[in-house]
Amino acid sequence: MTALLIILVIVLVLVVLLQIALTSDFINFIKGDDDEEGRSKFQGSMLMVFLVIGFITLIWSIFYFKGRFLPEPASEHGHLIDMNFNLALFFTGIVFVVTQILLFYFAYKYRYRKGRKAFYFPENNKLEVAWTIVPAIVLTFLIVKGLTSWYAITSDAPEDKIVFEATGKQFAWVLRYPGADGELGALAGRDKVSPTNEVGIDWNDPSSKDDFLANDIVLPVGKPVEVKIEAMDVIHSFFLPHFRVKMDAVPGITTRFWFVPTITTAEMREKLGDPGFNFELACAELCGRGHSSMRKVVTIVTPEEYQKWVEAQTPYSQLVGAYEQKTSRQTAENANVGTALNAEIN
Amino acid sequence: MSDVNTTMEHTHAEAHDHAHEAHHENFFTKYLFTMDHKMIAKQFLITGIFWAIIGAFFSVVFRLQLGFPDADLSWLAPVMGRWLTPDGALDPNFYNALITMHGTLLVFFVLTAGLSGTFANFLIPLQIGARDMASPMMNMLSYWFFFLASVIMFVSLFIPDGPAQGGWTAYPPLSYLLGHGMTLWLLSLTFFVASTVLGGLNYITTILNMRTKGMSMFKMPLTIWALFFTAVIGLLSFPVLVAGFILLIFDRSLGTSFYLSDLVVNGQFLDKGTGSPILYEHLFWFLGHPEVYIVILPAMGIVSEVLSVNSKKPVFGYRAMVFSILAITILSFLVWAHHMFVSGMNPFVGSIFVLFTLLIAVPSAIKVFNWIATIWRGNIRLNPQTMYAIGFVSMFISGGLTGIFLGNSTIDIQLHDTYFIVAHFHIVMGVAAFFGMFAGIHHWFPKMFGRYMNRSMAYMHFWVTLIGAYLIFWPMHYMGMAGVPRRYYTFDAFDAFSQFAGMNVFITVVVMIVFAFQILWVANFFYSIFKGRKVKESNPWGATTLEWTTPVNPGHGNWPGEIPEVYRWPYDYNKNGHEFIPQTVPMEEGELEHEETPAPEKVS
Ligand code: HEM
Ligand SMILES: [Cu+2]
Ligand SMILES: [Cu+2]
C-alpha cells in the first residue's frame, strides 16, 4: 500500500514538473524573445555550483568512509596491491581534479554572450604532442610498477608453503587439508565423487590417507600458504577480500594462488576493537541461485595454534571409512594396490 | 540495383508533392517496411527506447531487493507473479534473471542497436551527402532482424522457467545448465548479430562509396568517422561472438563439450571430457571488449559535433581525433583478456594485456583533452544538447580513470567482479553513452521530426540524471574497494559486505528518482514528436554540415534537387569573421585550410 502511495506521489510530481516545463517553454515562445544569454548564464552557473558542491561531497565522502574501503591488508602481497592502488590514485586523482575543473569552468566562463567571437583554434601540434607524451610516460611508470608486483605475486610459491584445497560447488566450498604429511592426496576424477568422497579423492594415493576436510579455513600467520582451487560444476571464484586474494575456480583446470597472512584474527579483532570480527571467504563469480551464500570464515592463528588444530582433525578417510569399504572393491579393480593398502591400513 | 534506383528516383520526385506521396505510400511502406534510412533510424530509436524503459525498470526492481531486502513486493505480483516468494520477496533466480536481462538489453539492444542503429542510419547519408544507404533493402533487413531478436528476447520474459540467468556474459558451464530462457537468449542474440553485421556492412559501404562530390574522407564530420570505425569494430568482432555462441548451443543441444569438462552437478556426474570454459571467455571478450567501444564511439562522435557546433568553434585537433579513434579501434582488439586476469590464465599472458590496456588510455586521454580545448574560448550556447555533451565528458573522465586501476592486473586482483567494476562501466559506458545519445537526440530532433524538444524538461532531466548518476555510482567504488562482489542477491551473510546496507538504501532511493526522470524524458520525447514547437529555419543551430542543407522535413532522397557539393571541412566556425561557414560554401581566394592555419602567437 505504501509503495503504491509512493508511486502515486512520484507520478504526481512528474506531472507537475511536466506542466511547469510546458508552460515555461510556452511563455518563452509567446514572448518571442528566447533569452539565450540568460539561459546560458544560469546553466553555466549551475555547472560551477555542481563542480564545487561535487568536490566538497567527494572529500566529505572520503573521510566518512575512510577505513572501510581498502580495509587493512592482511597479507604480504596485499600491501603491494594497495601500494599500486595508491599510486594509480595519485596520478588519476590529479588528472581527475584538473580536467573536471577545466571542463566545468570553461563551460561557465566561455558561455554564450551576444556578439562575442569564439577563437578559431583548430590545431596546435605542440599541445597535442605534450598531452600524448605526458600520459604515456605516467602510464609506462604505472605499468612497470604494476607488472613488477604482478610477477612477484604470481611467482611460484616458496618450498615451505602450506597447501590446502578449496573446491567450489553449487553453493558451498569444500576445504581439504593435507594432514600430518603435508601432502594433499591426488584426485581420482570427478566420476569418483560420491556422498562419501566429496571431491573424488584417489584413495590409492598414500598421501590421501591423512587428508581432512575442514569446515572453515584456519591458517598460521607468517607462513606462505598456497590455495589449490578447483570447481565441481560451474565457475566460482575464491575471494578473500581482506587478503587481496582472488582466483577463479574453473571446472577442468586447477588454479592456484599463494599468499602470506600477516595478522592473526585475534590481533585484528583487537586492532579494530571489534571482538566479533572475522576474515571471510566469498565467491566472486556468478554461479547461480546461491551465489551470495558461499561464505566461510577464515581464522588466522599462531603457528602453534595451527599445529594443534591440525592434530585435532579426523582424517576424511577415517570418517567415511574409505579403506575398510574400498578393500573388497579395490581387490577386484586393482589387486596389487588393494592388497598393499590393506596391509597398510591394518 | 536498378530496383533501388527506381524507387529512389520515384520518391525523389515525390518529395516535392506531399499530397501525391500519400497515394503511393501506405502505412506499411511508410512506417513499417520502409527503406528510407531516416525512418529506419526512427524505428531503431523507438525500439531502443522501449527496451531502455524495460531494462531500467528491471534495475529498479533489483535495486529494491538490494536496498530493501525485506520489502514486501507482493504489489508487483500482477507483473511478476511467479517470481515472488509467498512472502513477497524476490526469488534469487529471478534476481539473476533481472541483472542478466538488464545488462543484455542495455548493452546490446539499447546502447548498440538503439544508439548506432539510430545515428548511423540517420546521419550517414545526410552528413556525407547521399540519398540513402548503399543497400536500403539490407538496411531494412537489419532492422527486422533486430526486431526478431527483440521479439524472441521479449518472449523469453514470459516462459515458465524464466529468462536467462547467467549474467550478460553467460559463462558456461552455468549457461550450459540453465533452461529455455538461455536458449532463447542465445537465439535472440544470434539474430541480433545478424542485424549488426548487415547494418555494419551497409554503413561501411555507404561511407566508402557514396560520399558526395568534394567530400573526401578528411572532410567528413567526426560523427561519421566514429560511426565508420564502430561499424568496422562490429563487423570484425560480432562474428566471433556468434562462433562462441554456436559452440555453446552445440554444447547445450548436441552433447558436444567445447566448454565442458567432467562435472558433478547436484551430485550427478556428467561425463564431459576435457573442454574448457576459458575458451568461451576468450571468444566472448574478443567481442565483449570491442563492444564497449562500439557503444562509446558513436557517443564520442556525437559529442565532438555537438560541442563544436554549440561552442561555435572548430573541434580541436580534428586529425588527432580521427587517429585516436583509429588507435582505439586497433587496440580494442588487443585488450580483451583484461577481463580475465584472475581466470587462471597464464600470468605472463596477462601482463601483455596489461600493457595494451593501459596503452588504450592514451588515445582516450587525447580525446578528453581535445574536447576541453574545443570549448576553451568558445562562445558556448548551453543548450540541453551541450549540457548532455559536457555531462558525457565529465562521466567519461571519471569512468576512464578508474579503467587505469582495473587495467593494472595487480590492482584488479582485488577489484575484479566487485562493485568497483559496476561503477567503472556504468559511469564510462552506461551513463556516458546515454548522455551522448541524449545530446544527439536533442541536437538532431529538429531534423528527425521537424519540431523541437521541450527545453525546460530537458534541463530538469539533465540535472537529475547527472547528479543522480554520480550519487548512484560513485559510492560503488568504495564498496568495490572493500570487496563487495557484484551480482549478489543479498549481502546479509557477510560481515564485510553487509556494513554497506545504509549505502544500498541510499543508492536505491536515488535510482528510483532518476528512473522517474527518465520517464519524464520519454514523455518529453513523445510529446514533442506530436506537439513540440515547429522548426521554421532549416539550420536552427547554425551548423556547417550537410544535413542542415536539406528541407526542414526531408523526404525520401533527402535533397529535393541536386545533392550539394562540398568544399571545406565541417568545422569552419568563427573563421575570418563568419560565425559558421557551411561545407557547401567554396573556399575563398587565398583562404587557408584549417591545418594550414598558423599557430596563434599567444595561447592565452
Ligand atoms: C580508459 C581506458 C579503459 C581501461 C584501461 C579499462 C579497463 C577495464 C578493465 C581492466 C576491465 C575489467 C575489470 C574486471 O572485470 O576485472 C574493464 C571492465 C569494463 N569496462 Fe573498461 N576500461 C577502459 C575504458 C572503458 C570504456 C571506454 C568502456 C565503455 C565504453 C568500458 C567498459 C567496460 C565494461 C562494460 C566493463 C565490464 C564488463 C563486465 O565485466 O561486465 N571501459 N575495463
Ligand atoms: Cu558464486
Ligand atoms: Cu574491456
What key phrases describe this protein's structure?
heterodimer, A: about 350 residues, alpha+beta, Immunoglobulin-like, 2 domains, five-stranded mixed β-sheet, about 50% helix, disordered C terminus, B: about 600 residues, mainly alpha, Cytochrome C Oxidase, Chain A, two-stranded antiparallel sheet, 19 helices, 4 strands, disordered N terminus, binds protoporphyrin IX containing FE, binds copper (II) ion
Q: How does this model look, in words?
A:
The complex is a heterodimer of chains A (346) and B (604). With 346 residues, chain A is an alpha+beta fold. Helices cover 49% and strands 16% of the residues of chain A. Chain A has helices spanning 2-31, 36-65, 76-109, 125-154, 265-272, 303-312, 316-319, 322-333, 335-345, and strands at residues 162-169, 172-177, 212-214, 217-220, 225-231, 236-240, 245-249, 255-259, 279-283, 296-301. In chain A, the strands form two sheets. In chain A, strands 3-2-1-5-8 form a five-stranded mixed beta sheet, with no helix packed on it. A five-stranded mixed beta sheet of chain A has the order 4-10-9-6-7, with helices on one face. In chain A, α2 (36-65) runs antiparallel to α3 (76-109), α3 runs antiparallel to α4 (125-154) and α8 packs antiparallel against α9. Chain A is elongated. Chain A starts with a helix and ends with a helix. The longest helix of chain B is centred in the N-terminal third of the chain and has 37 residues, at 92-128. Chains A and B meet through α1, α2, α3, α4 and β7 of A and α6, β1, β2, α11 and α12 of B. The structure holds protoporphyrin IX containing FE and copper (II) ion (2 copies). One copper (II) ion (CU) binds at residues 236, 283, 285-287, 291, 294 of chain A.
